[in-house]
């Protein structure tokens, strides 16, 4: 689905149904293929970072409850 930046409508046609603006063609920068090593490294960072963030929040809550009790 495409997103119209002028009126904020999601649409699937070539022209925005609300304001009639034609969507620009994706540039070469947007179409470039990503390096598989970079993609893998980003996924690994997500798989490690999200649980670490949740663990840090749980640790802060645990320490807060320990010191307040």
Relevant terms:
single chain; 69 residues; mainly alpha; two-stranded antiparallel ribbon; 2 helices; 6% strand
Report what the structure shows.
The protein is mainly alpha-helical and 69 residues long. The chain has helices spanning 28-31, 36-68, and strands at residues 2-3, 10-11. A two-stranded antiparallel ribbon has the order 1-2. The radius of gyration is 22 Å and the shape is elongated. The mean pLDDT is 86.
Average pLDDT rating: 86
Biggest beta sheet attributes: 2 strands, antiparallel
Write the element-wise H/E pattern from the N-terminal end onward: EEHH
Distance between the termini: 52 Å
Q: Compute the gyration radius: what is it?
A: 22 Å
Q: Strands of the biggest beta sheet: in what spatial order? A: 1-2
Number of helices: 2
Q: What's the overall geometry? A: elongated
| Helix fraction bin | 40-55%
- Low-pLDDT parts are none
Please provide a brief summary of the model:
The chain has 69 residues and is mainly α. Strand 1 and strand 2 form a beta hairpin.
Q: Topology, pairings included?
A:
Layout: E1 2-3, E2 10-11, H1 28-31, H2 36-68
Antiparallel strand pairs: 1-2
């Amino acid at each position: 689905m495409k997103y119209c930046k002028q009126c904020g409508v999601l649409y699937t046609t070539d022209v925005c149904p609300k304001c009639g603006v034609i969507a620009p063609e994706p540039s070469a920068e947007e179409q470039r293929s990503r390096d598989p090593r970079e993609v893998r490294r980003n996924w690994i960072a997500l798989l490690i970072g999200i649980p670490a963030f949740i663990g840090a929040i749980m640790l802060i809550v645990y320490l807060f409850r320990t010191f307040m009790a």
